[in-house]
Amino acid sequence: MKMINCKNCHLILGVLLFTLVSSVRAESWGTLSGQFVVQGTLPEKSDVLVSKEFAVCGTDIPDDSLLINTQSRGIANIFVYLNHAPDRIHPALQNSVHQTLEITSENCRFVPHALIAQTTQPICFSTDEGFLHHIRAVSFMNPSISQAVADQAQATFQFANSDRFPIKVTCDTHSWMQSWWLILDHPYAAVSDKDGRFKISNLPSGEHTLTVWHERCGYVVRDWKVTVREETETTLNAMKVPIEKFQD
Length: 248
Known about the structure:
five-stranded mixed β-sheet, mainly beta
C-alpha cells in the first residue's frame, strides 16, 4: 500500500475541525429574559376621558399609556426587539410566520394594547360592541390605514415593510382608544407583561443589539447591547427606569 505524503495534513485537519466547530456553534440558540421596573414616586392611577357610549364603555377606562404594577413596580407594554433581522431564524419559529393575529375592542379599549406582528402576519380587528369603529394608523414604511369597521364585522390589515419603531393606532369615533403595533421582518421581539418582564426565545447565541421602546417616551434604550449564551436562558438584571422618563 502506497502511503500519502502530506506535509500540511495537520493544517488541513485543523481547518476542518475549526469549520466543524464553527458550524455547530452557528446553529446554537438561547433565550433572553429581563424586567423593567420604575424608580421614583409612582404616579396616581389615571383614567381617560370617555365622551360617549357610556353603557358599553363605562366612565372609568384606565389610561393604558402607562401601566405600572404598584407591587413589583414593573412597567407593562415596553417593546423589546432586535434592531435588524439576524442571519438565521430558529426552525421552531417558522410555524407562526403566517399566523393571523387578533385584536379586538373590549369596553372601548383595544386589546391587546401593544402588539407585535411580522410582515407575513395579517392583523384582524373585530368588534361586537354594538357600534362603529373607525381604525386609523400612520406608518412611515407602509400605506396608512383608514377603515370603518361595523358591529359584528372585521377588517384585516397586513404590512409589507418593517418599521423602526411601533406605529400608533387610533379610533376616529372613540378618540381615547389607542393601540401600538410593531411591524418587523423577524420574530425576535417581545412586549413586557404587567410585572415588566419579557422573554425572547430561540435567539441565535452571541451578541445582539436590541431596541427598547415605550409610547410615553419613545426610546428607553436605543441600542442595548446584550449577549445570549448558548443553550440556556440568559436573565438580565432588572433595568431601572426613572419615572421622569415617562413624564417628560
